[in-house]
Amino acid sequence: MSRDSFKTVYSTEKPTCRKCGRVDCICGQTRPPARGPVRVGRETKGRKGAGVTVVTGLALPETELKALLTDCKKRLGCGGTLRDGVLEFQGEHRDTLLTFLKDRGITAKKSGS
């Protein structure tokens, strides 16, 4: 069986590239561009009822996402994290985030009710 046919369940090692097999990718594989518009919504799934505001669809490099996350957390006065290219903020901040992203030149839509 080839190496790609196995699925890793848990590992303490750093993730490796599937093409070249190295931690520091040399094959030039990059994150695919985001599909659709930037969405700002609210989720409670898997968080024991605690609501978080999520921003999905941002097609930015990880360094720019981290900088945007820091600026948003300062503006909102709350905690937040970056998970798989999705910004998550503690609490209900959809309206504030929409205006903040609009001021930064990012067109976003409100998702959910």
Report on this structure.
It comes from Desulfomicrobium norvegicum (strain DSM 1741 / NCIMB 8310) (Desulfovibrio baculatus (strain Norway 4)). This is Translation initiation factor 1. GO terms for molecular function: translation initiation factor activity. With about 110 residues, this protein is of the alpha+beta class. It has a domain at about 35-110: SUI1-like domain (Translation Initiation Factor Eif1, 2-Layer Sandwich), CATH 3.30.780. The chain is about 20% helix and about 20% strand. The chain contains two helices and five strands; from the N terminus they run ββαββαβ. It has helices at about 60-75, 95-105, and strands at about 40-45, 50-55, 80-85, 85-90, 110. It has a five-stranded mixed beta sheet, with helices on one face. The chain is globular. The mean pLDDT is about 80.
